[in-house]
């Protein structure tokens, strides 16, 4: 998948994950996109691990199931980000 598709998927997944995640989150569009792209990689890696049993760093495809996996990964990334950022503050 090319970089433009990763950015679009990251922006979409990050925005939807921020809407789902409870509470008010700060950060702008760049943080949302970054957490979405990281979430797409996390979700893709988790799905590859569950599906094949091997640990490979992969991103999800730009498809309906890929968006759901990216949203799930983005929720995990948002939780990790605010958990670690909250402890540092």
What does this 3D model show about the protein?
With 89 residues, the chain is an all-alpha fold. It has one domain (3-88). It contains 3 helices and no strands. The protein has helices at residues 3-20, 29-52, 64-88. The model has no long low-confidence stretch (mean pLDDT 80).
Total strand segments: 0
Shape: globular
Largest sheet descriptor: none
Calculate the terminal CA-CA distance, rounded to whole Å. 37 Å
Protein structure class: mainly alpha
Strand content: under 5%
For the structure shown, list the relevant keywords.
89 residues; mainly alpha; 0% strand
Detail the topology: elements first, then pairings.
Layout: H1 3-20, H2 29-52, H3 64-88
Helix pairs in contact: 1-2, 1-3, 2-3
Entry summary:
The protein has 89 residues and is an all-alpha fold. It has 3 helices and no strands.
